[in-house]
Target: V-type ATP synthase beta chain
Amino acid sequence: MKSEYLLLDKVEGPLIVLSGVKNAAYDEIVEINTNGKKRKGKVVQLHDDKVIIQVFENTTGISTHNSSVNFTGRLLEIPLSKDILGRIFNGIGEPMDNAGEIFSEKYYNINGRPINPVARQYPRNYIQTGISSIDSLTTLIRGQKLPIFSGNGMPHNELAAQIIRQAKLSEDSNEEFAIVFAAMGVKHDDADFFINSFEQAGVLNKVAMYINLADAPIVERISTPRCALTAAEYLAFELNMHILVIMTDMTSYCEALRELSSSREEVPSRKGYPGYLYSDLASLYERAGMMKGKKGSITQIPILTMPSDDITHPVPDLTGYITEGQIVLSRDIFQKNIYPPINVLPSLSRLMKDGIGEGYTREDHAELANQVFSAYSHVQDVVSLAQVIGEDELSETDKKYMEFGRQFEEKFVKQAFDENRNIFETLDLAWEILSILPKEELDRLSPEMIEKYFKG
Model:
């Protein structure tokens, strides 16, 4: 039931405090009217009859005596139809591309619908990104959540844009595929980079964008991934599409959560983050998956920047617990002028084994990935030895490992920003580089695979 209150207790930064409120609900949307100007807000804390409201815009001009607050009796809902593809929205689902409103008979709660664990279907098959080090060694499986761990100043935005431009289902699939992109706390030039990149590549018509700019209110940042995931659920489970959701930057989202928690005077946990950070992140990540009886799927790639490149920081630490693997960007590899600077050794995809091989990619994929990991891991030992005794003193086999390591980084990991390799080109390239090593060193490959594919 709608109710209106004319006297505010106080206005503190982005927060409004009201008392004497009856029947308010957590997360309820309110409308604030000040001298004819309307703003939106939502209830973020309840205590007896006292309510704290977070305003979606700034609170300039709001006083305790000349404003009214209307409680709408509903949570934040957004209208959805297939027309959202090709459109750009802000963090609360309002169009920001001057292309008009989305008209739909149905409005959807941005907090989503929990997936019954019994109704979940095990992820199978893969999504091709066109990036060799991901497709071959940390394969992205439909319905998986696979985060990218990056650092400040690293090219994660470029990598996200490349994945969005190139991602597709397997070569022989005729199923519908689309991308939902959520950007949180991005600068205006980064937002323009994403939009221009998708327009120039001609893929904007298959992307729904939800962008929260750095100068927008933090409460909008909290809503941005929820709006994006609600759109993904609609496209996947009502329109039977396969949806890839890319969210950047989850660290910016968590910092907004910390700021909001601090303003509500909650007891902080690790590094000042709220104690419910784990469950809050899980409420986003667990919206990925496949459901029995539904043809569509939601696959997630959350991107986060690790403060000080610290992988034990609460945001990457908790994200690693919830998700099924990670892709780690390395500053050392980045400084070698290698793009994308993916460090394949700490990167993994826990569901990879169930979506590759015969019937999905190619029969040799699993064995080949194991062999490449093993060989590149041995390269690190050889490099350490060479730093002690010098490269000239290495055995002939170790020298070949050194050459394999150089070729692997320069030819396989490194690729151009607009270079799109299909899965067969990627696997063939891996075999070509492995041919540098003697056959007897390929102990992770069966004789049948060596006979069929080895190029030495």
